[in-house]
Amino acid sequence: xxxxxxxxxxxxxxxxxxxxxxxxxxxxxxxxxxxxxxxxxxxxxxxxxxxxxxxxxxxxxxxxxxxxxxxxxxxxxxxxxxxxxxxxxxxxxxxxxxxxxxxxxxxxxxxxxxxxxxxxxxxxxxxxxxxxxxxxxxxxxxxxxxxxxxxxxxxxxxxxxxxxxxxxxxxxxxxxxxxxxxxxxxxxxxxxxxxxxxxxxxxxxxxxxxxxxxxxxxxxxxxxxxxxxxxxxxxxxxxxxxxxxxxxxxxxxxxxxxxxxxxxxxxxxxxxxxxxxxxxxxxxxxxxxxxxxxxxxxxxxx
Length: 302
Prior knowledge:
Elements: E1 4-13, E2 16-18, E3 30-35, H1 45-56, E4 64-69, E5 72-73, H2 77-84, E6 87-90, H3 102-110, H4 118-127, H5 141-153, E7 159-163, H6 171-186, E8 190-195, H7 198-204, E9 207-212, E10 215-221, H8 222-228, E11 230-236, E12 250-256, E13 259-264, H9 268-277, E14 280-287, H10 290-301
Parallel strand pairs: 3-8, 3-9, 6-7, 7-8
Antiparallel strand pairs: 1-2, 1-4, 4-5, 9-10, 11-13, 11-14, 12-13
């Protein structure tokens, strides 16, 4: 069964059209939602990601389209309530009761969930080194993030949704958080998170959805990207051909003088053979990372 799906899901707000992705996620995986954090854009990533998450959780209703989470409709009240029993959410602001101590907040939260796993909570308290007698207001942002994650994971959710989980954290806290998310996915929880930190996404995600101007522009498997995506740089002794690289797998072609750069999504061997047959005197094939794929994708959409 798929974890999340969204079909033509839209939300109109203040004149902006937010059209989050069509997503199908396999269980036991991590999916990252990435985009440009730029408030100057008419519909920037921050808005689109938050609206996507709110619609998936049933916190706001879509203007159009349909969606399911864990096989349950996000617009059907009864199905949505049942879905939320199996979903945990950690927001960017990490809103917690500041006047409580860590221990009090854990006990308070536990009272709402009959499926609460006390052994998981105790293990994470030790693992995250959370001071149980300290008030939440006295915790660092990194500690508050760990506490919010503990409260989510102690329920053993089928799906964990996070909004910008590393925002505002120091490098050590980011490293610890990423390890925690990898561990959660390894223990059977599907992780779905938004981030504009591409390096964080590339480290822990299995799939990536790229949003630009409020719309999905790419949905790809990182394993497939690492295996198939290549930057092919070709050198010619004379002016290179301009229309000979319309080959399956070619995503983009740039020609500068006698050099041709091909961004290939697949089929790189065939592209190289074609280039040699056209007289290429030098051929360099290099793998590309998510950052380059992201930059080329949003440039193309600009």
